[in-house]
Fold:
Amino acid sequence: MVCLGNICRSPMAQGILDSKIKEQGLNVSVDSVGTASYHIDQNPDPRATAKAEEHDIDISLYRGRQISTADFDEFDYIYVMDNYNYQDVLNITRDEEDKKKVKMILNKIFPDQDMSVPDPYYGGEEGFENVYQLLDKACDKIIEELTYEI
Ligand code: 4NP
Structure:
């Protein structure tokens, strides 16, 4: 899961998907990163942590990390939150195989529309609720597809 800072959207996406993976007993690993380096080693934004906590998901101890090419070796799918992330991640791909892994996460629920998860960092609490709802639905679809694949 990839966003800009790795303190709002992508840690929420990681927590949501991880909780669904555990509910289903799947053997899948998920992590999150930022394209930027501003928040390396920082815990998620308290507003993201509180929103996840409302849904019994604990992301408080996650730590910010920046994407690197090693992530393309480690992971089968790289889900990005917005168009900027998409471009930044594509810029560090090494070949077609890497490129194929990069997906806009909201295409899971709004196919082919290339919609972005709005960045809630500068807004109010309602932005975090909106992000939670979008990511929850997208992660349901990811789980459904993983269940077929495994
Ligand atoms: P995120 O939100 O990409 O969802 O983690 C942001 C976090 C920090 C900043 C921007 C967006 N920032 O400019 O520091």
Remarks:
- Residues 3-9, 38, 119, 121 surround 4-nitrophenyl phosphate (CB under 6 Å).
- The chain has one domain: 2-136.
- The longest strand covers residues 78-80.
- The first helix runs from residue 9 to 24.
